[in-house]
């Protein structure tokens, strides 16, 4: 089964997934999937497999990605060969319907109330107040008909991690 993690900017997806990965490190059922991204390794953010655009295109043409998408000027992909058990990967909302057609999918939506999202984005210091408002306004709804578990991450990090771990452990 693929667990597709989605949510708005500022929801804390990377932080909670890092905590869940650490909490589940001894459980062989769970596999946290490293994405390939056309972004340099030293650019920060998640631990990803860096590829340049030509490398990404070659791997995509060779069928090495189960899913791939473009967002924010970058290309993202998850490997075609997913391990057995529960594979957990950050995805784009734009590929959820395709993922559900191809494999068993549970969507783990991590979110927070708009004022919390706005405060977290402002604390990053990378965008203006107008940019933050525009980012929060453009969040798209999930495609209909998907199996979705929503985790609200409005409190302490430990609480959010516990909620994600509980949601993952509840998967049959």
UniProtKB/TrEMBL annotation:
Gene3D superfamilies: P-loop containing nucleotide triphosphate hydrolases
Entry EC no(s): 2.7.4.23
Pathway involvement of the protein, from the record: Metabolic intermediate biosynthesis; 5-phospho-alpha-D-ribose 1-diphosphate biosynthesis; 5-phospho-alpha-D-ribose 1-diphosphate from D-ribose 5-phosphate (route II): step 3/3
Enzyme class label: transferase
Database matches in InterPro entries: P-loop_NTPase, PhnN
Binding-site residues for ATP, renumbered to this chain: 7-14
Catalytic activity: alpha-D-ribose 1,5-bisphosphate + ATP = 5-phospho-alpha-D-ribose 1-diphosphate + ADP
Annotated keywords: ATP-binding, Nucleotide-binding, Transferase
Protein task: Catalyzes the phosphorylation of ribose 1,5-bisphosphate to 5-phospho-D-ribosyl alpha-1-diphosphate (PRPP).
Family statement: Belongs to the ribose 1,5-bisphosphokinase family.
Protein name: Ribose 1,5-bisphosphate phosphokinase PhnN
Gene source species: Belnapia arida
Gene that this sequence comes from: phnN
């Amino acid at each position: 089964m693929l667990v597709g993690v989605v949510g708005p900017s500022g929801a804390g997806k990377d932080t909670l997934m890092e905590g869940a990965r650490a909490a589940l490190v001894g459980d062989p059922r769970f596999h946290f999937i490293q994405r390939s991204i056309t972004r340099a390794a030293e650019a920060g953010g998640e631990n990803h497999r860096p590829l340049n655009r030509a490398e990404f295109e070659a791997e995509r043409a060779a069928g090495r990605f189960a899913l791939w998408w473009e967002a924010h000027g970058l290309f993202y992909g998850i490997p075609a060969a997913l391990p057995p058990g529960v594979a957990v990967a950050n995805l784009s909302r734009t590929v959820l319907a395709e993922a559900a057609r191809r494999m068993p999918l549970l969507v783990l939506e991590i979110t927070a109330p708009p004022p919390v999202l706005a405060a977290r984005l402002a604390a990053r210091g990378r965008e203006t107040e107008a940019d933050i408002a525009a980012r929060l306004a453009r969040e798209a709804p999930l495609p209909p008909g998907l199996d979705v578990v929503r985790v609200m991450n409005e409190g302490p990090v430990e609480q959010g991690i516990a909620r994600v771990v509980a949601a993952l452990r509840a998967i049959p």
